[in-house]
Task: inverse folding
DNA sequence: TAGAAAACGTA
DNA sequence: GTACGTTTTCTAG
């Protein structure tokens, strides 16, 4: 090795832990072998090696080795038996991956280095020293702070997951001390994850400050008496020896007796087939193809069976000192590539292109005059597809001001299939200079006047022959609608992704970009700041704004290119086109209408609740015998189960006393006064803080109404969610709570109409599981819970004791939730054994339900997802988890999803049709709110009856014609001047 | 000041 | 036992 060489040292052990937690869980499709960290590792190595092949990149490795920990028995353990003693067993899903990562390293033909008695960090330190002596540079692929002490002008670090170089400046920025003082800093702070003691009460900030003042650890310890702060001085004096011990523990050994010569790390050309065999065995299809292309090997010629990838003993790395080996299992080939131009092949190819394309920030345009904007729009229009994104002053589309907008398109070469680089541009409209105060805030020059730009935008956005692409179109749709523009003909990348991947991960742009493009977009807070220093987008510097906004449009277009073909490949086109995309306008209209809320009613209730809570608080403190924060479950638990020594206390997951309402009710049932008062107090304060106090703040000053925001792509099952404010959890169960509903009112001359599905989920269950008894009961209009009770307990429906019916009802709900004895027992406050008996009896009487539940689980295990009756998918990637808790949870969720999701699809179908149906019937009322199985309308007094008829009709027939329900859907509707009475 | 945990409101 | 969002408290930084 010599001067111009560059050694890369990959911290293999550090990487695997970090990747395991940071990357989405991934399992090998054919057998559920967890391989997420291995996949991340292979991608990372391939990227490093790609840079090595590409000489245009600045830093390229000539030598590379991957370093691992051998075992936890190291010389540090001798020095200090407590070292790393607090480490728990690695997660089960990680265990097979230790061995696989070593296999992967070998498949890459890279040296796989480990040494008994030493940690990877010591080997890295030693090799970095050897390289430096040879005059070569070293890059350590790790972000571990323990390695930062090694940074010198010739040794730097690289965080591969954040794509960030870590040099001297970065160390100083992060820790406040230069690399050569990291050892001293760590000696003071210690390290809780490794159980390095340090000095109590000294954190990184204090340590850096002390080292700044005294220079180094020895000086500091020697002159500790001079420290002014009492506690700090005492600690440093008392724990000086502990600091010295810590120093020994954190100092990396640069003279480890390494066995391999640096020259043996020299990079050789890639052995394509060997690597491909491994990657195919792992079922990393994207990377397999990439490697095949780069090495000129033919992937289909390589037989993965030539590598033995086992996840039994052979795959277990020496990272583990003990633990039982899993069943050995040899990997099988699973190559579905046919090479034909099928929708699936197209989707794969597009995803490939998207993942490999580079995003070039320097190519973005900023359109500052009409000529430039016109030219850009004209060119975009040519292609027929344009990505669009608005930049505004607020996340609330009903309050936001339009600050600018970005567009992106990809020029097509008319003759060939080839296409040019994506063109992306930002048009600033009302950016301001300086601070937002009396002096600053003047409009920046050379921005197109808003109305002129809007006029041009309108023709583009309303042109049905140009497809507009947005990420979360509902937001931009609302912004534009408020400016008199109704976007027509659009796709939404968030909704496409949701149709394909609900349950897989987030559907936000950043998540999608990382998932599909392997690119991390500029964070909003990077341009607009965060917390105190945050500014609205109109105060962002135009140059920065351009890069950020144009990138968003650019990324959106790329996502569309990658995702749209997947819809066809996965058979999800109609889910997207019938259940997702039409909801954009439907919901946007509802949000824009808002609902009227009576301030006076809320304010009066607020006062009542405050009075009630204050009185209760006094009683509570008297009963408790001391003043305490009643709102603190921690303090309350201590009083009830500590001071008062009440029996029956249980602890929460984090070890605190549980004080849930259920627990308190139990105590109240024993005749205690205090717990009941707490429950009452909590109810009143909850109602006050969450509803009566908060709701008035959501009244829009311009419209004088409350505009909630519905999230279309946030649930796994297909339900909507509502926020800011959440109008899907307005109280209804208690009399006190219902008072809040009286504040939701119709405008004068109008009524609120509430129409809700009766038992829709049980009806869906009867349909999907095809249960004769249930179908008949619904067809005959029976009381379904009484019927269930009668079947189970042999009691006639007539004169059914309420308690028996209550239990049957709980069981019916339990079935929908993927019943467990534990849950049912909890719900009914009965022993688990009794709950088990109930479930057994239920399944004996309704064996079809058990069959349905079993087949749903089997389907989920096989495919990784379940489907609603309309084909919507909900993914459960952890359904095969080796952790029984996680697995069971996923099984229950998978059982629930087709039921909850089908019901959600049904009401979506109704919502999509209802506006047109009202129009058709010449009705002027409109839909305002959705609460999962209920729709709320506002209709003129004289149209109430007709509105109820239309809504009921549409809702009851919403499944048709796609699905003919085997049970009738029933809707109850009524009208009143407030929501409480209408419901 | 940001995030986790606990609690609780809805279907 | 399913699916959510918001509030308060408390801790860590």
Result:
């Amino acid at each position: 090795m010599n001067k111009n060489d560059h050694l890369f040292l990959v911290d293999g052990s550090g990487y695997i832990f970090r990747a395991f937690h940071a990357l989405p869980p991934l399992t090998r499709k054919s057998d559920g072998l967890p391989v997420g960290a291995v996949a991340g590792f292979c991608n990372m190595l391939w990227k490093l090696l790609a840079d090595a092949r590409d000489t245009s990149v600045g830093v390229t490795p000539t030598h590379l080795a991957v370093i691992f920990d051998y075992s936890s028995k190291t010389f540090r353990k001798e020095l200090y038996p407590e070292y790393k003693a607090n480490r728990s067993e690695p997660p089960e899903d990680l265990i097979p991956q230790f061995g696989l990562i070593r296999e992967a390293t070998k498949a890459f033909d890279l040296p796989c280095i480990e040494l008994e008695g030493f940690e990877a960090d010591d080997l890295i330190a030693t090799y970095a020293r050897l390289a430096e002596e040879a005059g070569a540079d070293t890059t350590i692929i790790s972000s571990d702070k323990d390695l930062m002490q090694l940074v010198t002008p010739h040794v730097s670090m690289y965080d591969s997951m954040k794509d960030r170089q870590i040099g001297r400046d970065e160390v100083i920025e992060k820790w406040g001390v230069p690399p050569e003082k990291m050892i001293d800093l760590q000696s003071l702070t210690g390290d809780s994850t490794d159980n390095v003691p340090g000095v109590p009460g000294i954190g990184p900030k204090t340590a850096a400050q002390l080292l700044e003042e005294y220079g180094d650890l020895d000086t500091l310890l020697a002159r500790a008496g001079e420290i002014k702060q009492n506690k700090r001085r005492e600690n440093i004096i008392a724990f000086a020896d502990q600091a010295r011990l810590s120093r020994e523990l954190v100092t990396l050994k640069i003279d480890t007796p390494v066995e391999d010569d640096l020259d043996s790390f020299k990079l050789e050309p890639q052995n394509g087939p060997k690597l491909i065999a491994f990657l195919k065995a792992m079922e990393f299809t994207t990377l397999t193809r990439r490697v095949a292309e780069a090495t000129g090997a033919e992937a289909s010629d390589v037989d993965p069976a030539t590598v033995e990838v086992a996840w039994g003993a052979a795959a277990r790395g020496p990272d583990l000192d003990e633990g039982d080996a899993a069943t050995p299992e040899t990997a099988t080939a699973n190559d579905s590539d046919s090479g034909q131009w099928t929708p699936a092949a197209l989707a794969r190819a597009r995803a490939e292109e998207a993942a490999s394309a580079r995003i070039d920030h320097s190519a973005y345009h900023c359109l500052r005059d009409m000529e430039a904007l016109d030219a850009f729009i004209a060119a975009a229009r040519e292609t027929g597809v344009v990505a669009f994104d608005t930049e505004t002053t607020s996340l609330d589309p009903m309050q936001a001001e339009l600050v600018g907008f970005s567009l992106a398109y990809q020029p097509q070469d008319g003759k060939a299939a080839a296409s040019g680089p994506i063109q992306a541009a930002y048009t600033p409209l009302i950016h301001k200079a300086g601070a937002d105060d009396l002096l600053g805030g003047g409009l920046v020059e050379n921005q197109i006047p808003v109305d002129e730009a809007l006029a041009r935008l309108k023709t583009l956005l309303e042109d049905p022959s140009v497809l507009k692409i947005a990420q979360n179109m509902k937001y931009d749709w609302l912004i534009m609608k408020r400016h008199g523009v109704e976007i027509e003909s659009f796709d939404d990348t968030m909704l496409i992704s949701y149709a394909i991947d609900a349950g897989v991960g987030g559907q936000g742009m950043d998540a999608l970009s990382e998932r599909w493009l392997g690119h991390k977009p500029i964070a909003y807070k990077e341009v607009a700041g965060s917390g105190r220093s945050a500014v609205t987008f109109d105060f962002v510097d135009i140059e920065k704004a351009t890069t950020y906004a144009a990138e968003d449009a650019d990324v959106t277009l790329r996502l569309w290119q990658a995702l749209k073909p997947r819809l066809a490949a996965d058979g999800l086109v109609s889910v997207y086109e019938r259940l997702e995309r039409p909801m954009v306008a439907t919901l946007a209209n509802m949000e824009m209408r808002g609902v009227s809320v009576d301030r006076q009613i809320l304010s009066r209730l607020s006062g009542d609740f405050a009075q009630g809570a204050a009185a209760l608080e006094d009683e509570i403190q008297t009963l408790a015998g001391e003043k305490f924060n009643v709102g603190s479950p921690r303090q309350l638990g201590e009083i009830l189960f500590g001071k008062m020594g009440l029996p029956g206390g249980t602890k929460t997951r984090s070890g605190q006393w549980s004080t849930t309402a259920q627990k308190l009710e139990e105590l109240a049932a024993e005749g205690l006064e205090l717990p009941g008062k707490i429950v009452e107090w909590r109810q009143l304060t909850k109602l006050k803080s969450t509803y009566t106090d908060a709701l008035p703040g959501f009244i829009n000053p311009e419209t004088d109404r409350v505009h909630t925001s519905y999230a279309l792509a946030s649930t796994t099952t297909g339900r909507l969610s509502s926020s800011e404010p959440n109008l899907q959890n307005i109280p209804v169960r208690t009399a006190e709570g219902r008072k809040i509903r009286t504040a939701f009112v119709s405008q004068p001359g109008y009524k609120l109409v509430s129409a809700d599905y009766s038992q829709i989920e049980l009806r869906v269950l009867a349909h999907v599981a095809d249960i004769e008894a249930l179908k008949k009961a619904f067809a005959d209009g029976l009381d379904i819970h009484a019927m269930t009770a009668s079947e189970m307990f042999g009691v006639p429906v007539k004169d059914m004791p309420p308690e028996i019916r209550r239990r049957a009802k709980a069981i019916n709900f339990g079935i929908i939730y993927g019943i467990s004895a534990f849950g049912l027992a909890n719900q009914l406050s009965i022993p688990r054994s009794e709950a088990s008996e109930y479930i057994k009896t239920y399944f004996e009487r309704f064996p079809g339900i058990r069959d349905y539940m079993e087949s749903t689980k089997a389907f989920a295990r096989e495919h990784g997802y379940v489907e609603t009756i309309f084909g919507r998918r909900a993914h459960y990637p952890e359904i095969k988890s080796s952790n029984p808790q996680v697995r069971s949870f996923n099984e229950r969720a998978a059982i629930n999803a087709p039921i909850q999701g089908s019901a959600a699809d049904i009401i979506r179908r109704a919502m999509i049709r209802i506006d047109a149906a009202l129009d058709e019937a010449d009705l002027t009322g409109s839909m305002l709110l959705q609460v999962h199985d209920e729709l709320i309308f506002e209709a003129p007094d004289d149209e109430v009856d007709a509105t109820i008829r239309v809504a009921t009709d549409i809702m009851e027939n919403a499944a048709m014609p796609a699905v003919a329900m085997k049970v009738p859907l029933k809707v109850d509707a009524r009208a009143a001047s407030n929501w409480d009475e209408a419901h």
Observations:
- Chain A has six domains: 6-265, 272-331, 359-570, 596-704, 711-771+846-983, 782-837.
